Batch of 2 targets.
Target 1
Amino acid sequence: METTNRVHGDVVVVAPAGRVDHETAADFERGVVPLLDVATGARAGLVFDLARVTYVSSVGLRVLMIASKSLRARGGRVAVAAMQPVVAEILEICRFGAVVEIFPTVEAALEAMNNA
Amino acid sequence: MMRVRFWGTRGSLPVALTAVDVRARLIAAVRSARGATLATDEAVESFVDALGFPVAGTFGGHTSCVEIDGGSAAYILCDLGSGARPFGQAALARHGAASAQTYHVFMSHVHWDHIMGLPFFMPAYLPGNRLRIYGGHRELEAALRRQMEPPSFPVPFSCFGADIEFVHLEPGVSHEVDGMTVTTLRQRHGGDSYGYRFEKNGRTVVYSTDSEHTVGEPEETSRFVEFFRNADLVVFDGMYSLADAISVKADWGHSSNIVGVELCQLARAAHLCLFHHEPAYDDATIARVLDETRRLEEITRGDHALRVSAAYDGLEIEL
């Protein structure tokens, strides 16, 4: 699946596109895991820009869980931003509000993380 | 035709409504009755039906026991949780104590909540009855005998008057039992558990409880998709939210509603029935989980619609 990354200070913004499901989640995980090692330091953060994600299944949410566990263990933060309504509803049903921070926009997520 | 009757649907531990719960329901019902015209019995019944299941009903508190009725004279049961007690009472009330019956019991595993009903299963005490207890665990018989040894229970297993036989099942092998084809699948749970696929006359029921899905292992997903393939009904352990199931409650041996929906969608099953409810959940919480699961199915539906329900003690589903 297509995933783009960009760096804002200590925060990496990951922007996957399309469906994150049983077909594509392995690609998504391979793209995210190396970023977890890069994100170090007290202000380290990872923001998933989900604006172009139309669906996320349990295997996709598992990748968010891996990122959250990894960064939180080192004092970092993980957020999702710009979710389409369907994706936001899936995260709510799966109780992922306790796993990742949720922001309406990438800018809001970056501001919160950089001002922490 | 097949009919599935749920005698116990709660996970881990039996629960019961408390006096506080009942009072809260009564207050909610009486408040709703303000201004209503309830002059006839029919009007009262309609009013009660409209209150909603968490007020007018309850999911119940007995632990796992499910009857698969394929239309034959013998009974087929899944697990001997505390729901086996009312099942046994109903069977005796139907036939009388003098009428010998056969009970085929398929055990998912031998954790306490799945075996605790046996000491109170009255048909087991009656000579003439036959119990065939099937399972994949080598220690199945020992576990059932042990729970009836002192100091845990005053009546020993040897007091059972029925003809009791234990039958070991190999995973993946299909068996013919009383006209039903039964296939077993080993599942991820502490000490293993086994799921059962029952097929008869073109109807299929899958009983898959106490089964953790690790999420992200394609081979495991494929095994379950094949096991659930085109089932008319999948009884599924949806005890936790996905977030809990893969974090704080990982390795606790249970699954989530979202994984149930996904597996049934991939398998093109017709009906997902959430089962093994978290004992800490009250009726309103289980009802909310059901609503959310139905919504999840709706927003993730492709070309195959999946019916979603939540099991409760006393529920009957006809296939």
Target 2
Amino acid sequence: MNLTRFLIACSSILLGLGLIGPTLTIFPKAGDLTWFIKIIAPEELAVSTYSILGVIQKLFQTNDLFLAILLALFSVFSPVLKLSFYWHATGLKNPKKFKSMLEVIHYIGKFSMAEVFALALIIVVIKSFPGGSTAQLEWGAYLFTSSVICSMFVSFRLDSSKRS
Amino acid sequence: MTDISDFDAPKPPAWFGAVIPLLLVLLASGFYWFISTDKDNGESENTSNSKIKLRGQLSPGQTYYIFASEIEVYPTNLKNESWDQGKKGPDIRYRLLWKGNAVFESITKDDSLIADWSGLSIELNWKDLLGKSVSSDDAIKAGRIRFEEGEKIEIAVEDVDVASDDDVGRHEIDMDNLSIGKNEFKLTKTDTSAIRRITLRVLPVGSNIQDLANIMK
């Protein structure tokens, strides 16, 4: 269980850094008018980098409450809740309680990659903007994905301990 | 005397351990936030331009870029003769005067009865546009004028010649009559002016790109 808890701790730290670290860099372009906009208002074409929490904050500021809540649920609350349940499960001695806890975790785990899907969706949307705007993943996204992968290992270990 | 051992000490509830991942997440986030020097980079919304008026009459105290995007002159000069020898059109240049001072002078447009200016610098190298950040003050070729009620500006148009520059005419504009965007003045020929039409563009200094692009249309 010590290794499992170590993995949960690693996943938690990676998640914390992944949420606040730079995740997405947007390179705005304005097509044929790019040169013109660079003259008049170069700040409008400034490269912007966002963290996941930054994106959520921005969505709240722009009153995109549905997207903000969706992203907050999938990328912040769901992973934290899952890791908390994992940690709790590692301390359970009662096999019946342990099994039911794993079922709850598996239910929450269905949302575990939703945030990666959301990121992919953002990139696809930005790349489809007119004017050739592009988006690029930053290290925060990789830490975030590593956290998800780490938690998957935790899940495998808990599943194997359930069988034994 | 009662001896309280570890066995007797109150145990934390079973779910207490579940808080540890949350604490680790908060600690990691807090740590990065602490060491990050430019945490607000790219995420702070620039709201400084939100109060600038983008249409209608000019606002007192606000500074504007003003330039002539087009000036048309009559086919003959003030003496009713052809502008240049060889029946060439005039080489038109204008100056913008405010409070008796020339605050902007355009480049010369050769052999034109209708001269046009984009309002943008043509001295930029395309490489500068791609690589360098060019300030709008350097790039926009226009006079910067602060509007106050009752203020007047004057456009002085000249035919640039090698020997001496000839007056084409002058036109005084009451700034109260100006509006943001395109302003057109149709003039009749007089003894002192052969200007037929002036199209002035007024752009508020500090407005954002979408608004400027719309005004420039």
